[in-house]
Design goal:
It is a single chain. The protein is mainly alpha-helical. Helices cover 43% and strands 0% of the residues. The protein is built from 4 helices and no strands.
Protein backbone atom coordinates (compact mmCIF):
# COMPACT_ATOMS: atom_id res chain seq x y z
CA UNK A 1 0.00 0.00 0.00
CA UNK A 2 1.22 3.47 -0.88
CA UNK A 3 -0.18 6.71 0.49
CA UNK A 4 0.27 9.91 -1.48
CA UNK A 5 -0.63 13.33 -0.15
CA UNK A 6 -1.08 16.57 -2.02
CA UNK A 7 -2.27 20.04 -1.17
CA UNK A 8 -3.50 20.58 -4.73
CA UNK A 9 -5.42 17.66 -6.22
CA UNK A 10 -5.90 19.53 -9.50
CA UNK A 11 -2.12 19.58 -9.98
CA UNK A 12 -1.82 15.82 -9.35
CA UNK A 13 -0.98 13.85 -12.54
CA UNK A 14 -4.26 12.58 -14.00
CA UNK A 15 -2.40 9.73 -15.73
CA UNK A 16 -1.78 8.09 -12.35
CA UNK A 17 -5.49 8.19 -11.51
CA UNK A 18 -6.61 6.90 -14.90
CA UNK A 19 -4.17 3.99 -15.07
CA UNK A 20 -5.67 2.30 -11.98
CA UNK A 21 -2.43 2.79 -10.10
CA UNK A 22 -4.40 4.59 -7.41
CA UNK A 23 -7.32 2.57 -6.10
CA UNK A 24 -8.87 5.20 -3.87
CA UNK A 25 -8.77 8.97 -3.39
CA UNK A 26 -9.78 10.40 -0.04
CA UNK A 27 -10.11 14.15 0.31
CA UNK A 28 -9.75 15.59 3.79
CA UNK A 29 -10.96 19.13 4.20
CA UNK A 30 -9.31 21.65 6.50
CA UNK A 31 -11.40 22.74 9.48
CA UNK A 32 -14.01 25.47 9.11
CA UNK A 33 -13.78 28.60 11.29
CA UNK A 34 -16.27 27.03 13.74
CA UNK A 35 -14.27 23.79 13.87
CA UNK A 36 -11.05 25.76 14.40
CA UNK A 37 -12.80 27.68 17.20
CA UNK A 38 -13.76 24.37 18.86
CA UNK A 39 -10.21 23.04 18.50
CA UNK A 40 -8.70 26.23 19.93
CA UNK A 41 -11.26 26.31 22.75
CA UNK A 42 -10.24 22.78 23.70
CA UNK A 43 -6.51 23.51 23.41
CA UNK A 44 -6.72 26.68 25.53
CA UNK A 45 -8.93 25.39 28.34
CA UNK A 46 -6.00 25.63 30.79
CA UNK A 47 -4.77 29.00 29.52
CA UNK A 48 -6.27 31.94 31.41
CA UNK A 49 -4.62 34.62 29.25
CA UNK A 50 -6.81 33.89 26.19
CA UNK A 51 -10.25 35.46 26.09
CA UNK A 52 -13.12 34.02 24.08
CA UNK A 53 -12.72 36.99 21.73
CA UNK A 54 -9.03 36.07 21.21
CA UNK A 55 -10.03 32.53 20.31
CA UNK A 56 -12.76 33.70 17.91
CA UNK A 57 -10.35 36.06 16.16
CA UNK A 58 -7.65 33.39 15.88
CA UNK A 59 -10.13 30.89 14.44
CA UNK A 60 -11.20 33.41 11.79
CA UNK A 61 -7.66 34.33 10.78
CA UNK A 62 -6.16 30.82 10.64
CA UNK A 63 -7.64 29.60 7.35
CA UNK A 64 -6.05 26.33 6.25
CA UNK A 65 -4.78 25.46 9.71
CA UNK A 66 -5.43 21.96 11.08
CA UNK A 67 -5.32 20.87 14.72
CA UNK A 68 -1.54 20.41 14.79
CA UNK A 69 -0.99 23.85 13.27
CA UNK A 70 -3.28 25.43 15.85
CA UNK A 71 -1.46 23.66 18.66
CA UNK A 72 1.89 25.00 17.39
CA UNK A 73 0.31 28.46 17.08
CA UNK A 74 -0.17 28.51 20.83
Amino acid sequence: MTIITTSDLDAFPKSLCQSNRISEIIEIQTPTPQERYNILKSLTQNYTQFTDEDIKEASKSSTGFVGGDLERLL
